[in-house]
Amino acid sequence: MENVIILGTGIAGCTAAIYAARANLAPLVISGEQDGGQLTLTKEVENFPGFPDGVDGTKLVQDSKAQAEKFGAKFKVDIATSLEEIEGGFEVALMGGEKLKSKTVIVATGASARWLGIPSEEKFKGRGVTTCATCDGAFFKDKEVIVVGGGDSAMEEALFLTKFCTKITVVHRRDELRASKVMQDKAKNHEKINFIWDSVVDEVYGEKVVEGAKLKNVKTNDIVDFKCDGIFVAIGHIPNTKFLEGKMDLDDHGYLKADKFMHTNLKGVFAAGDVQDTRFRQAISAAGSGCMAAMEAEKYLSEIE
Ligand code: NAP
Questions:
Q1: Ligand 1 atom nearest residue 114's Cα
Q2: Ligand 1: which of 173, 183, 253 to mutate, most ligand atoms within 8 Å of CB?
Q3: For this structure, is 291 an active site residue?
Q4: Domain that holds residue 189
């Protein structure tokens, strides 16, 4: 039986792994669907302390992983499909078929991009509709695109796309952005970025790839035809907790409930990172909660042994 299984290799999982490994617990870390987490989709992280010139998101998690490995953490690429309480601990089933046993578990499975949920979006996924400018931006060189959303992610996506695209139009469902002032200002002051307010994407159309979208004004219900080559959806995230439904306490939006010490409703299961964070969702707060979860897991283990 393992001491600690950590679910997720984002910055929360990797930080928990560093702390658990340094406590001689030899944690086993399971990658999840997106090995490295959301930071691998971010080119430049500008607000992580210690990097005055910014740091590449993928490099930040890869280095954190290497740091955890140096102290004895083990990493495995697979996806957890269930978590059950058993005598003396927990059993984690993996998609690959394995069943692992551990005295404690840290759930750091993060969150995945939210999609618009309209039928035409499904048809054009990977053919012009995407949630990742860092991954797909280069395919839209000299093209015109839409970015949907009004948060920091949407501004970041729009700004990143200015490297490739001739014109970026941010379509937001309200007339006020949710993004931080600094990101708003950057986007609003960029000559390639325009805004369409109070509007949503009602339909995506095209022959084989995206050729445009029907935009609906939510105040007037008017629909306008907007020609574009790509649609970047940046409307937030959904916590990766499907495998915990019915077994652990989740809130109405599916976030794993945890107290201020990262304890969940199951004694011996701790939470870290975006899977439990409805408020901050920052790389540094995810890392901080990973540290806390690992320290609490260590404390719990010393108490039961
Ligand atoms: P977010 O702050 O939750 O913003 C989501 C945006 O999408 C909101 O503007 C929301 O509109 C809109 N939206 C949600 N559902 C929609 C739908 N079905 N149709 C149309 N629009 C919809 O999410 P986020 O931008 O991904 O940011 C998440 C967290 O990460 C935040 O704390 C943010 O500060 C942080 N973050 C930071 C950085 C950075 O500092 N560099 C970069 C990215 C993210 P409403 O405004 O009307 O609700």
A1: 15
A2: 173
A3: no
A4: 119-233
Active site residue 136: yes
Q: Whose CA is nearest to atom 48 of ligand 1?
A: 178
Query: How many domains, in total, are found in the chain?
Result: 2
CATH number at residue 65: 3.50.50.60
Q: pLDDT (tens digit, 9 = 90+) per residue, 196-234? A: 999 999 999 999 999 999 999 999 999 999 999 999 999
Q: Are residues 148 and 133 in the same domain?
A: yes
> Last residue of a domain, which of 187, 208, 233?
233
Per-residue model confidence (pLDDT) at position 183: 96
* 126 and 228 housed in the same domain: yes
Among protein residues, the one whose CA lies closest to atom 19 of ligand 1: 116
Distance (Å) from CA 151 to ligand 1 centroid: 4
Does 242 share its domain with 221? Answer: no
pLDDT at 22: 98
Question: Can you read off the two tokens belonging to residue 279?
Answer: 């408020």
Tell me the pLDDT tens digit for each residue of 253-262: 999 999 999 9
Q: 220 with 192, same domain?
A: yes
Q: Ligand 1 centroid to 263 CA: how many Å?
A: 27
Pick from 152, 297, 162, 299: which is nearest to 235 by CA? 152
Q: State whether residue 106 is helix, strand or coil.
A: strand
Q: Residues lining ligand 1, CB < 6 A?
A: 47, 116, 148-154, 156, 173-174, 178, 200, 235-237, 281
For residues 141 and 281, state if they share a domain. no
Choosing from 177, 210, 233, the residue where a domain stops is 233
Beta strands in the chain, from DSSP E residues, in sequence order: 2-7, 28-30, 44-45, 55-56, 74-76, 80-86, 89-94, 99-107, 111-113, 129-130, 144-148, 167-171, 193-196, 199-205, 212-217, 223-227, 230-233, 237-239, 269-271
Same domain, 278 and 186: no
- Exactly one of 35, 132, 198, 202 is catalytic; name it: 132
Phi, then psi, of 111 in degrees rounded to 5: -140, 155
